[in-house]
Design brief:
Strand order of the largest sheet: 2-1-7-8-6
Protein name: DNA-(apurinic or apyrimidinic site) lyase
Structural class: alpha+beta
Keywords: DNA damage, DNA repair, DNA-binding, Glycosidase, Hydrolase, Lyase, Metal-binding, Multifunctional enzyme, Zinc, Zinc-finger
InterPro entries: FPG_cat (IPR012319), FPG_N (IPR035937), H2TH_FPG (IPR015886), Ribosomal_uS13-like_H2TH (IPR010979), Znf_DNA_glyclase/AP_lyase (IPR000214)
Strand content: 15-25%
Number of helices: 6
Number of domains: 2
Largest sheet: 5 strands, antiparallel
CATH architecture of the largest domain: Orthogonal Bundle
Order of helices and strands: HEEEEEEEEEHHHHEEH
CATH topology of the largest domain: Helicase, Ruva Protein, domain 3
Number of strands: 11
Radius of gyration: 20 Å
Shape: globular
Family: Belongs to the FPG family.
Organism: Polyangium fumosum
Length: 283
């Protein structure tokens, strides 16, 4: 599932191969963008779950993979591993072709307009970015006082990069009830949550892939369980509903959360409800 770490891995894989190269062709949703031919790729950057490819004439290619999209990098004459019909964006430079498959969001935008862009300009601090602003992230999270914390963490205007996997995993690690409002937690608890989220996401974003070749930047097993014992998986709770908790043995659960009804995995024993705090918040 593409979350912030996946996008940073993609940017790290594509950037060194594309930056400085002239565009031979750009095809967006099966339409050729001829005005970019000959222009240089100047930067490839991840912002949360978004990938941005900058060109020297001021245009940016913005893609968002949502649940099923992927970026692959191929040699000029190499056979693609997916059907060309599913290609959303194709960027060809000398000897290389970068292909984005099945991206629900793929568009061109002017770099000068990014700051005010509805999708990019409103993003919260990126947890993986070198200049991550913890104080700003905490302040944005605090503004979600009455919202369930598991739902608030998924709001990309609060912090950018967290998806279903990391939401469930970081809340379990910090033993926080996903269904209690943000107001139920202290600044110290929220700060520890952000620190752990950043540490584990950076570690996964920079880990070496297990394979090379097309799509190799996806060939990494995401790990959130530090110090896992033999026989334990790399994730503590995600997609493990009905299985015993590695720490206490209670059966893990999954509940839908928020307007989008996203899945939240948790341990009912390690993450006990904060009922008193919920009543206070409602009052």
């Amino acid at each position: 599932m593409p979350e912030g770490d996946t996008l940073h891995r993609i940017a790290s894989a594509l950037g060194p191969r594309l930056v400085g190269q002239p565009v031979r062709a750009l095809v967006l949703r099966h339409q050729s963008i001829e005005r970019l031919a000959g222009h240089l790729v100047t930067k490839v950057e991840a912002r949360g779950k978004n990938l941005l490819v900058f060109f020297d004439e001021g245009t940016v290619l913005h893609t968002h993979l949502r649940m099923g999209g992927a970026w692959h990098l191929y040699g000029e004459h190499e056979r693609w591993r997916r059907s060309p019909a599913s290609a959303t964006a194709v960027l060809a430079v000398p000897a290389l072709v970068a292909v984005c498959f099945r991206a629900p969001v793929a568009r061109l935008v002017r770099a000068s307009l990014l700051a005010g862009d509805a999708a990019i300009g409103r993003l919260g601090p990126d947890l993986i970015a070198p200049a991550f602003d913890e104080a700003a992230a905490l302040a944005r999270l605090r503004r979600m006082a009455g919202r369930e914390i598991g739902d608030a963490l998924m709001d990309q205007q609060v912090v950018a990069g967290i998806g279903n996997v990391y939401k469930s995993e970081i809340l379990f690690h910090e033993r926080l009830d996903p269904f209690a409002p943000v107001s139920a937690f202290s600044d110290e608890e929220l700060a520890r949550l952000l620190v752990f989220a950043r540490r584990i996401m950076v570690a996964n974003a920079t880990a070496k892939p297990h394979a090379s070749g097309p799509g190799a930047h996806h060939g990494h097993t995401r790990t959130t369980r530090e110090g896992a014992r033999p026989g334990e998986g790399p994730l503590a709770v995600y997609r493990r509903a009905g299985e015993p908790c590695y720490d206490c043995g209670a059966l893990l659960e999954m509940r839908r959360q928020g307007e989008a009804r996203r899945s939240t995995y948790h341990c009912p024993r390690c993450q006990p409800p904060r009922r008193a705090a919920i009543r206070e918040a409602r009052a």
